[in-house]
Amino acid sequence: MPPKRRRQSQTDVSVRAKRVKFTLDNARIPETDVEGVVLVTGSGDTGQLGLGPDVMEKTRPALVNLEQEIVDICAGGMHTVCLTKDGKVLTFGCNDEGALGRVTEGKDDAEFTAGEVKLPGRVMQVSAGDSHTAALMEDGRVFAWGTFRDSHGSMGLTLNGNEKMPYEILSNVHVVKIASGADHIVFLTNSGEVYTCGCAEQGQLGRTSERGSSRHSRGSIGKGALEKLLKPAPISLKPSLKLHFDNIWTGTYGTFCKVANKDDVYVFGLNNYYQLGLDIVGPQYVPVLSKEFSRHEWNLITCAQHHTICLTTGGKAYAIGRKEYGRLGLGEQCDEARELKEIEALSGEDLVDVACGSSVSFAVTKKGDLYAWGMGDGGQLGTGEEEDCFEPKLIKSKQLQERKVFRVSAGGQHTVILAINNNNN
């Protein structure tokens, strides 16, 4: 009689699945050693331009009157977030869902001018989505405020609903970088793990099945399904892969995670126009290697609803996804980009930043020029006109004549620009 096979114990399984110890000392977050001034363009009907209640729209960049020195900016759906040199957070814009993180009710025009968010320490990075804002503290804690939304309406930020004041969203975990999609937040920890929370309907959390991606999925009981989505948890990875990550990026409905010490990029989320670099069209609910995005070494990946604009460490810009309104910057006669295409109109430039909104895109050169392309309606491009741009167009304005742009961020219908005066070189 053959010997009996030894039954595998629970201890054996846990040992085999144990992750190799990994420590990420720091992540590539936006540099905050340069102070600048803030300029805005586009729609301002909810105060997101920070120019006061009488300014509803700008078609060219306008200077925001701020007393503080600003080192980083982030445009949400209808609000704006600024990080000061002293590590403080300023917000302005729509506060209906609590995205400003401060009290504005009963205060005249409080949403139309910048106000400080009270936080327990120095902030080193900010991010913003359609109706939420997040702040990463120096000590690795993360605070967030506002709400997530899905196809059924407001989900709340926690089971208590909207959080109109800063709330510590992920405790007992040291975070080194954050990123916000329209309605989800991604956290990179110092152990190389990636956590997510928020809306999962397009697969952007990377840890749900298609059936389990909705808070109203069949078979869900009470608040259990909602709690699973709102409580930050690690993305779903096979333990046998033993993966650690050292960078993260998000888009409206997509997430990108770079494997530590490699160019490999794992993606999940909406891929209906190939914006994640996958051949399979539709939502991707669990992390999968994107061979297309793993072909380059990226400095930045920024993804809107249906297209992605990204920047290599060598300063070159690439586009992939939907072509309508010129958002890819590949010319009026271009096809949908199913593969990453270099934006040839910018091939002679050394780029330091890129950004994209729903139907618009931007790039910043090392010498401080700002280029824009895509849908021209509403003034978000800053060209002074409302015509669509099918290739990158240099933005010229009185406010930019004596300034060098070094960062740009695109919101729902507005754009925020960070620049320094030329005499500050």
TrEMBL record:
Residues 38-417 form the RCC1-like domain. GO terms for molecular function: guanyl-nucleotide exchange factor activity. SUPFAM superfamilies: RCC1/BLIP-II (SSF50985). It holds the Pfam family WD40_RLD. RCC repeats lie at residues 36-86, 87-139, 140-191, 192-261, 263-314, 315-367, 368-421. Keywords: Guanine-nucleotide releasing factor, Repeat. The keyword Amino-acid biosynthesis does not apply. The keyword Repeat applies. PROSITE patterns: RCC1_1, RCC1_2, RCC1_3. GO terms for cellular component: cytoplasm. PANTHER family: REGULATOR OF CHROMOSOME CONDENSATION. This is RCC1-like domain-containing protein. It comes from Brassicogethes aeneus. The lineage of its organism: Eukaryota, Metazoa, Ecdysozoa, Arthropoda, Hexapoda.
